[in-house]
Amino acid sequence: MMKPNLAAMQVVLDDSVATTPHVLRKSAKEQTGNRAPLSFYNACTTSRASAPTETRMKSKSFAALATAGVLGAILGSSSPAAHAEAAAGLALAQQQNCMSCHSVTRSFMGPALHDVAAKYADREDAANYLKHKIMDGSAGVWGPVPMPANTQLTPDQAATLANWVLSLK
Prior knowledge:
Layout: H1 6-18, H2 21-24, H3 28-31, H4 53-74, H5 80-95, H6 113-120, H7 126-136, H8 155-166
Helix pairs in contact: 5-8, 7-8
């Protein structure tokens, strides 16, 4: 009696398995060159992939547009000089990352700038007070989250920001 060739049977079995679609399909990491695909859910892992950079940038763009729209509505009837000063204040706030924690109309990490303007509007030294709070930082005035000192700002830039915030009332 002849013994069956198990090695030959294994090769045939392996060849038939290798041609099935689920074996030929590459993993997501192989398809994308060893990086996670740009999706919110990576099917090859049990954890979620982070949001793509494009999505984060779109969110920031929408926030900037909303801020510009609110400022446009607030400053619609003011003089051109005041409009230029407000635009400079907004640009400086965005450049110095103030808008990472603050919004003009909405509180999230820090208070809304409109609320800051309303709180200090009646104060005689409001611009100087806010200038020092911007430069030196603050803790406990608006809640438990401290505002760090902005040592990268010059006193003139801090004064521009303080005056711009006060113009939002």
